[in-house]
Amino acid sequence: MFTGLVSDVGRVAAVSGDSKLKRIAIDCAYDPAGILIGASIACSGPCLTAVTVTPRDGGCTFEIDAAAETLARTTVGEWVPGRRVNLERSLKIGDELGGHLVTGHVDGLAEIVAREPVTGQVDDVWAPSERFVLRAPPSLSRFIAEKGSVCLDGTSLTVNGVTGDTFTVLLIPHTLAVTTWGERRVGDRLNLEVDLIARYAARLTEARAKPE
């Protein structure tokens, strides 16, 4: 389990394999002593398993294997060396739950259809935020509600509004600076995980509505 609070931004160092299985090496600032082989790390959304860990100056390089299902359902298949990815270590008992419960199981891909600057004043300093408008797959839009939570590229965000299959989120300057969101542009696709509670609530409602 994760919280959707990004703790580091890694960089893809190498990619090998094909559409059935890819091995991806990611450079990061994590202490290699704290990552065991088999550890779960959320990499821009999907929960992936560290299969090797190699110390490097300033952190480590870990490798993950992405199978066909992950490559088909997420953006992982598009990753190339140099790509930056949001990282989060798995939640430990006793950790602060600052975002929302995230499983690292990506439901589908959302597409950015607009990015709009929103400038506000904080302590007499003008701070630029950004409002993103995204389109969700029709099969997932019913799980997205105003003031609810979504996880996009591994980042826990609050939904500001919903219109049909589109929804908006607001990124404050801090989030833009410490994640890959500052690099995102119209047309980009993001890994989307809908809120766990919304998914199960919908499933329960459907089950109750079925005739016996």
From TrEMBL:
Alphabetical list of Pfam families matching this protein: Lum_binding (PF00677)
Top-level enzyme category: transferase
Entry GO MF terms: riboflavin synthase activity
Keyword hit for Transferase: yes
EC number(s) stated in the UniProt entry for this protein: 2.5.1.9
Lumazine-binding repeat coordinates: 1-100, 101-205
Pathway involvement of the protein, from the record: Cofactor biosynthesis; riboflavin biosynthesis; riboflavin from 2-hydroxy-3-oxobutyl phosphate and 5-amino-6-(D-ribitylamino)uracil: step 2/2
Protein name: Riboflavin synthase
Organism: Methylobacterium terricola
